[in-house]
Design brief:
two-stranded antiparallel sheet, single chain, 194 residues, mainly alpha, globular, 2 domains
Amino acid sequence: MCNSMKTMFKPNTLYLRDDGPFYRLVIIYQTLFLGLIPVFKKEHRLDIDSDAIISFGSKTSDIIYQHINEIVNTVQKNEETLDTFGNTICCMFSNHAYEIVKDFNNKSLEFEFFRHVRNAASHNNKFNFNKEEPRRPASWRGILIDSDKKGPENKLHGMNCFGEVLGSADLFYLLSDIERQLPTECFLSTQTDY
């Protein structure tokens, strides 16, 4: 994965192994996020024919056809933001990424942190600790999840994971750090069609 920006910015580059379990998923994430820019940024808005449609295939019912401008107008009418969409994509992405490698969880501080990120993603982007959680210490790059404070007593309980505790780039860095902990058999063998 590589970012390129205009010359006034110094590009930050993060590499994930192209034979690793997260590489294709990161490419999909970046493509989805790129597709959001014309919806939310007027200066990048595409001139779309008012009759342009998109179709969604179905194996059980009729194909769904929808006007592209109808989708864009609905998003704008509901006053959605690029941040809320980005956080939702991060939640879906972290859920999927964790499921790919959960059998390789080595109980490290970072992997335990990843488990809590995945759980927050499954609870509407909120850290949600039951009375027995967090069970073990968890930390990643200076963010600590205190295992002495259980359930609602934990200071992260109820906080938004993405947008408040983590940004979208943090998810890439977390996956890169987790990838370095994965055993050899996790590479290539976990590649799937998402």
